[in-house]
Amino acid sequence: MRLRSTWYDAWSPEIDSALSALPASSMCPPGLYATLLERSLAEGGRAAVVEDGNGPVAVVGLEREGRLRWRNLTNWLIPGFICPSADGMALEAIASLDAEISVAWWGMPEAARHPAIRESHDKPTSRLVVAEREAFWRSSKMWRTIVNARNRCSELGLRIDEPGDAEWTIRSWAAKWATPEEPRPEASADAQIEIARRLTAAGRLVTLVLHDDGRPLAGSTNFIDGDTITAGVLYRDESVGSLPTGVRIIDELFEYATRHGIREIDLGGGHAYKSRWAPTVGADYDLVLAPTLRHLAHSAVRTVTRRH
Question: Residue limits of the BioF2-like acetyltransferase domain (predicted)?
């Protein structure tokens, strides 16, 4: 299949037209990707409209990731979604671009396969069937910790999808975990807040916040796709000391799932404590796609740069 791409450094009616021609994702409601992409273009991002002989097959937003690499616009922002594309064409479209591009393979039903994948770094994930939670927590020695958290946090209140709570959770989390590698942490937080706003309205995201007489102490954002919840960001105000609000907010998520008929929760990976909450099942991936020669050339440049 021969694909051709047209690049844009600013918003264009052609991008809007291509987005309208592509199927909408359940995890990216109409207008959400356009908003994210338009903001990104205004801050130095790029966009490619990828077409075959019959019309657009994908719109790919990219942002700089260092001097030699680009990253997909929605990396680690929306599970189960890469970019607006025809069915099964997201990786094919990205691979057709003459660039080295990082792609987060998050919450996908199967492992990524494409000959243009040059790097693949797995992140084992912790997933648990909600109905099996107590049996697993007893086996993982987590049960007593959870009961203790329930007792110690019994005076705290729980808010669900209250105005401002998603923003508080996301901005607090972003401030805590900001790194020098993230060039624009505030822009990433803005994107997450916009996603939370749109997906909450669509019934695809829920925010839980533990509070003490109105003062938020811990919060989490969580994506809903059918009968599965995928954890987003989790923040705990450390000023509460040893009060186990982090444990309690995760426990509250499982209780919410029980009340709303959710079958399974994906807590993701990256932290050892998650293996006590859920067994390791499957993985998410950091991928890099690129033409062979470009990737070899960039790898050589990075090697020389590190040596000097």
Answer: 141-272
Backbone φ and ψ for 65, nearest 5 degrees, come out as -135, 80
**Tokens at residue 223, please?**
């994506």
> Cβ of 233: how many Cβ atoms within 10 Å?
21
| C-beta separation of 208 from 222 below 8 A | yes
Which CATH topology does 125-282 take?
Answer: Aminopeptidase (3.40.630)
Question: Could you give the CA distance from residue 133 to residue 63 in angstroms, rounded to a whole number?
Answer: 39
Residues 6+ apart with CB under 8 A from 113: none
What average pLDDT values come out for the chain (308 residues) when binned by 10 residues? 94 97 92 97 97 96 94 97 96 96 94 93 96 98 98 98 98 86 72 98 98 98 98 97 98 98 96 95 95 62 52
Q: Report the C-alpha gap between 252 and 246 in whole angstroms.
A: 10
Domain spans of the chain? 4-116+290-307, 125-282
The pair of three-digit structure tokens given for residue 212, joined into one six-digit string: 């003490």
